[in-house]
Design a protein that fits this description.
With about 450 residues, the protein is an alpha+beta fold. It has 3 domains: about 210 residues, Multidrug efflux transporter AcrB transmembrane domain (Multidrug efflux transporter AcrB transmembrane fold, Up-down Bundle); about 80 residues, Alpha-Beta Plaits (2-Layer Sandwich); about 130 residues, 2-Layer Sandwich (Gyrase A, domain 2). About 55% of the residues lie in helices and about 20% in strands. The strands form 4 sheets. A 4-stranded antiparallel sheet has the order 3-4-2-12. Strands 6-5-9-10 form a 4-stranded antiparallel sheet, with helices on one face. Strands 7-8-11 form a 3-stranded antiparallel sheet. Helix 1 packs antiparallel against helix 13 and helix 10 packs across helix 13. The two termini are about 15 Å apart.
Length: about 450
């Protein structure tokens, strides 16, 4: 009993700390915790809306789709480096033109966004550092020196400007995919020299400063072309070809329109949505207290703990909140209530069958667990599929729903159980009334 009471006290204090962190911006914005704000999507806070036209006149008809997907990948990497959360980058065909739509939530400096998006991706080939130099750089970096140097690879003159194109190929014997690189005349000479001097060593291919492939040179290559082979899946090899072509020959884009947009929903609509959600949650909590009495009151505390945990997680990750994401959060609150109802109804059944309240509490949690587990696993599977395959706004809904389900399981099975068993209200004459018991009690 003492351990349970200590656990209940720890949970209560943790809930207060998380609650302060979740609402720090409201309570005292001047404190450092107030710097942790919530990220809001374009529909809630507004941002920048950019429309680009892609010039695909120099692209073969069958390669237009691949080129546009490669362009989208490049733009997304640029935006992620810009620090924008949950950007929406999509390709569409309009009036016979290939267009790229970019929406950046919370970004109102359109000129800076346009500058970053419009930069040409940088593709480069690097060779391995000599062992002595690598060790020297690593030793210096351990002392806080030469921090801007790469200890593993050296930049070369060979960059994406010398790459004509890359092609997806398959080994006719094994069926394994590979990537063929074709350089222009000058690039072919540079590549032959680089491979001749690095036989048996690795050559790294970097795109936008990130390594995308690090093959080993088997022999000098003087044909002006190269092959990258490895443990690729067809999709991985296809993505690599797309990235290489995007880095070497990016599809030219022209900015058609740019605008700063306000919240799509509007502040008033958003406020009304939150107020209605608050009223709905309060109505559910009132029902729990009236229907289940003391267990219902305990479930209110556990749901409060659940809410501050989720809000704190939203700040720490941070999760970009959209209208769909908030809907997923509210839906997960309802699912947390479902778990409590399953438990409390099971407890009432146990007392009707003659168990005393103390044993009915433990048995109710144990027997309700399989139903709670199975229903929440199915929801988590659905949320995972939505997050994996869904668009940006759908992924926000799936993420908040999945996090909410995990936290709701903890609040129902750990927090509520700890508080119910930590204090022996189930003893005494009023126990039957407090727990709504229909059978024997002590």
């Amino acid at each position: 009993m003492l351990k349970l009471r200590i656990a209940a006290l720890v949970i209560f204090i943790a809930g207060l700390a998380l609650g302060y962190f979740a609402f720090a911006n409201v309570i005292n914005p001047s404190w450092f915790l107030g710097n942790f704000g919530y990220r809001l999507g374009l529909d809630l806070q507004g941002g920048s809306h950019l429309v680009y036209k892609a010039d695909v006149s120099g692209v073969a008809f069958g390669e237009v789709r691949e080129s546009m997907e490669g362009l989208r990948d490049v733009i997304e990497r640029r935006i992620n480096a810009f620090g924008v959360a949950e950007p929406l980058v999509q390709v569409e065909r309009s009036a016979g033109e290939e267009r790229l739509i970019v929406e950046l939530a919370g970004v109102f400096n359109i000129d800076e966004a346009v500058r970053l998006i419009g930069q040409t991706p940088y593709l480069e080939f690097k060779t391995e550092q000599p062992e002595a130099e690598r060790n020297a750089i690593l030793d210096a970096q351990s002392k806080g020196q030469r921090l801007n140097e790469d200890p593993y690879f050296i930049s070369t003159i060979l960059t994406g400007r010398y790459l004509k194109k890359s092609i997806l190929d398959f080994n006719p014997s094994t069926g394994e995919p590979s990537v063929l690189l074709e350089f222009d005349e000058e690039g072919g000479r540079f590549f032959a020299e680089m491979t001749r001097e690095n036989v048996g060593r690795r050559v790294a291919i970097f795109l936008d400063g990130q390594p995308i492939s690090i093959p080993v040179v088997n022999e000098e290559i003087s044909s002006g072309s190269a092959q990258i082979s490895g443990q690729f899946t067809p999709d991985e090899a296809k993505a690599l070809v797309r990235r290489l072509n995007s880095g070497a020959l990016p599809v030219p884009i022209n900015l058609l329109s740019q605008q700063s947009v306000g919240p799509v929903l509007g502040a008033e609509v958003f406020r009304r949505g939150l107020v209605s959600a608050l009223y709905g949650i309060l109505a559910v909590l009132l029902f729990l207290v009236l229907r289940y009495r003391l267990p219902g009151l305990i479930s209110v505390l556990s749901l409060g703990f659940y809410i501050v945990v989720i809000l704190a997680v939203f700040k720490l990750l941070p999760v970009t909140l959209t209208a769909a994401g908030i809907a997923g959060f509210i839906l997960s609150v309802g699912m947390a209530v479902d778990a409590n109802i399953l438990i409390f109804e099971r407890i009432k059944e146990e007392t009707r069958w003659g168990r005393d309240i103390e044993s009915a509490l433990s048995e109710g949690f144990r027997r309700a667990w399989p139903s709670i587990r199975d229903s929440n696993i199915s929801t988590l599977i659905t949320a995972s599929i939505l997050y994996w395959f869904g668009a940006s706004i759908v992924r926000g809904f799936a993420l908040t729903l999945g996090l909410g389900v995990l936290a709701s399981i903890f609040s129902a099975l750990v927090v509520a159980r700890t508080f119910l068993l930590a204090f022996d209200f189930y003893r005494g004459r009023s126990a039957g009334f407090l727990y709504g018991a229909g059978g024997a009690h002590k």
